[in-house]
Amino acid sequence: MQITSGLFDKMVLQRNGKNECNALIKGEFFGSGNLTVKVAGQNDFKVKNEKYDFDGDITHFKLTLSGLPVGGPYTITFKVGEYDTVTVSDVLVGDVWILAGQSNMQGAGLLKNDTSVPINTIRSFSNLSGTWDIAKNPLTQWEGEDLNNPMGVGPGLSFATEMFDYYGVPQGLIPCARGGSSMDQWSPDKKDETIDFYGETLPGFYGNMLRRVLLAGGKVAGMIWHQGCNDAYSKLANFYFDKMVNFIASIREDLHSPKLPVVIGQLSRSGGGPFGYSIFWNTVQDAQRRLPYEIKKLLMVPTIDLELDDGVHYSSKAQNVLGKRYFNAMRVLFDKSCNLTPPIQFKEAKVIKGDFGDRFVVEVSFKHVNGSLHAKGYPSGFDINYGDGPLDKYRVYKIDLKGKKAFLFVGDEYGIFEKGETMDLHYGYSIWPYCNIYDESDNPIPVFGPIKLQINILN
What we know:
The chain is an alpha+beta fold.
């Protein structure tokens, strides 16, 4: 006999709303007979929905194991006849999370700076060995990659540690991220196809993720996602929003979980790429910002302030901070008793009259600000560009922060304003901005723009 999906040594089973498991398990055994299931030291569990399919000399079975409360560990024995037995040991019941995207989710912080401490109640489903074990960095390793890579710290373990520390519930991670991957390589339309990955033919990353989740029973608490770099170097950026909408809709449909909570991370800064790609970088960042307005049960966490180890990868310290941001946002989505606010979101911007000597002021409002906005140093990060004209026509020469608003005092480099002129407002413009504005809970405001504004008022 063997279990083929849904239950393995050291795995974490996803809990349901009753804080119990409700696990779909599949397997097979030679011949025929009556299957019995026992859980050591437990009597209040149920085996239901049993189905058997006899195919030649092999019987394929599936059943639902329910009633095991959150916690564990559990030892579960399956038996047919006198001698055909399989025992699955050290099984926990808690919350299971998908970790997907590209290199920063795979783990790109330096391992020598890793401060995480592996604990028995946080487990990971290895994509390399196909087994469950205590989670430790690097969480994600792929066949053919350098196993001595000095980089390997991502946000996943920090996220799970925060979850366990707060809820006291075992945590299971299903790492699926692949560095250097694009949205086309994550396309749900290619889930049963192979893709070209830098000259190597591989299964599509969406299909690989889906198969791994189904192998682990098909039930998860949610997903954290960090991706976008490989779509931010060209006109592919213009299609990022629609591809993400399709991606989220597809994973929810394929997992039969229409309200699956999803938290994504916004791209940070970039230290290099093709000439002129900054417009594409900002396009992806703004697409990520707009996704929570389009997709329910999805939030985005900003990262523009985080420390980098190179031109695009977060340091180990920053990865831990990012994991905590994922944790706080996920709590908002999946915990009905949570009183946290979502990450800060851009609300609106408008041109208003300035004081003496100011031709105009841009008033920028935000949602979900805890307390008031403040800057770590002189407020910085806002830019105003002049449509197709010279980028330095308008200068933001002063920024005042009051409550949930920022007031941008704007001057005209050429001394000429015309009523009806349009301009583009940005926060985090280009690829290497300096942004330092937060709320009182140390939540940063996100990169956004272009936001079209019109000068409809002059002093």
